[in-house]
């Protein structure tokens, strides 16, 4: 079990060793986002901008214009939310080589409550042209995503979490930007998931197997640009989709999949996520239950789409 | 009558050889600024869209930058050792565009395509398409942050180039400006020189009445900047202020330039109404007359 933010902190320091153009900015949360690891190693390349996210993003854009590769961190709601327009105008519109990598995305932020739980960031980042949007599943996925972001020329948004999560991928996992991963083959229906919900889907597929239901699990790390091929194939071969994300059902992965399939191969689909509500204080595990984001909830959703499929 | 010419760039710097021409003297700069004002009104008249008042109030400063102060090479817009300029008040794009054209960054004919579909001369500066434009601006309040970032990056690379940023006074109403204003002295950015084109007017009227930002100098001083106050249309004062700024160590410099919106054409002067309005035929003719065109 390892938190994606811990993997980020380590990977950033490693990349910083390999490439002297990498610089890091934070908004007084480096202890939480783990940019502090890089900061300790390369203090002259770390810029704490204080509690001023808009300026932080603009400063990163300026550093990119001067040839640097800035990684920018804070909590997801403040990065994507507060500095949304700065990301749009100063980073995406000029195609500045800035990597926005916040942590503490989703409801599992826990006790801090709704003000700190971003359920909208994937949607609002996805809507920006020139933006690549990634939500890794675990530590290995995160390491790959961060390396891919550094190598990619242009704006990237990577959403990480707060808590330790189980490993979904082996340590030598090869991350490919823009490509989904089939983690479990199946024929009756497909889970298309991102972030922490991929591990939940793997558990759900085990539960379904016991009931004789064959569930495919596809992890989508890169939500934009979406791996349309793997999704189309799953729709054609299984005929029933359940998407899941630690995010609103409005505008995130579920919407992206529904948009694509709606135009190319209308398929029975159910979006599992937060239903147009804010988060709330509680323990992470409790909140997953509260917002119906557990493997059991995924099993129920799978049965729902299967019933519809069989009724046709 | 002004004739459009495709002239060879009279660049002061050759990025491979170093300085090749002397800095332009004050008289020449004043002439430049007059010619650039003519370009501005002609360009805006052609496009029938754009920001007249704020372009005319900024042009003396911008002329002084590109023909005297900045180390830059129009034939090598990506020269690593160039000074950088951020037009944070991006709506004054016409002032920047005519200056870049005059300096030789792109053909002057391009000016006739300002704001047209497919033109690289976008409504607000777009670094993706226009040589010489460093960053995208237009949404007010974001340029100083970017200038800070450039200054930080250049210092990391031990370069002695400088960064200049021009804001409007209405723009100071944006909170992000003050985040950046806090950060620049905190990071001791003495390779940064910012300016405020303080023409006292914004779209809905007087800055003081809409949302008062004055006293500007006191604010920047309190934030830790070295502050200079000048008449933004006094070329000698502009040039001297740039010289003084270069001597300040350990903190950034803010030049608060008192200006006149629409400066150069009495009909446009001191008027909020010419903020985002381009001159019509009559207004153009009057402008050209005031700028001394028909005396040639």
Describe the fold and architecture:
The complex is a heterodimer of chains A (312) and B (296). Chain A is of the alpha/beta class and 312 residues long. Chain A is built from 13 helices and 14 strands. In chain A, strands 3-2-4-5-7-6-12 form a seven-stranded mixed β-sheet, sandwiched between helices. A five-stranded mixed β-sheet of chain A has the order 9-11-10-13-14, sandwiched between helices. In chain A, strands 1-8 form a two-stranded antiparallel ribbon. The longest helix of chain A has 17 residues, at 295-311. Chain A is globular. With 296 residues, chain B is of the alpha/beta class. Chain B has one domain (26-295): Thiamin diphosphate (ThDP)-binding fold, Pyr/PP domains (Rossmann fold, 3-Layer(aba) Sandwich), CATH 3.40.50.970. Chain B has helices at 26-47, 52-69, 93-103, 143-156, 175-186, 207-211, 216-223, 235-247, 281-290, and strands at residues 13-14, 18-19, 84-87, 163-168, 192-198, 226-231, 253-258. Chain B has a five-stranded parallel β-sheet, with helices on both faces. In chain B, strand 1 and strand 2 form a beta hairpin. In chain B, helix 1 crosses helix 3, helix 1 runs antiparallel to helix 9 and helix 2 crosses helix 8 (235-247). In chain B, 53% of the residues are buried.
Rg of Cα set of chain B: 18 Å
Q: Mind telling me the CATH superfamily name of chain B?
A: Thiamin diphosphate (ThDP)-binding fold, Pyr/PP domains
Helix/strand structural class of chain A: alpha/beta
Work out the oligomeric state of the chains in this entry.
heterodimer
- Our count of helices of chain A gives 13
Helix-strand topology string of chain B: EEHHEHHEHEHHEHEH
Q: List the chains of the largest interface with their residue counts.
A: A-B, 30 and 32 residues
CA gyration radius of chain A, whole angstroms: 19 Å
Question: What is the CATH architecture annotation of chain B?
Answer: 3-Layer(aba) Sandwich
* Biggest sheet descriptor of chain A: 7 strands, mixed
Broad shape of chain B: globular
- Give me the side-by-side strand order of the main sheet of chain B: 3-4-5-7-6
The CATH architecture term of the largest domain in chain A is 3-Layer(aba) Sandwich
CATH secondary-structure class of the largest domain in chain A: Alpha Beta
Strand content of chain B: 5-15%
Low-pLDDT regions of chain B: 1-8
CATH domain class name of chain B: Alpha Beta
Number of strands of chain B: 7
State the separation between the terminal residues of chain A, measured CA to CA.
Answer: 42 Å
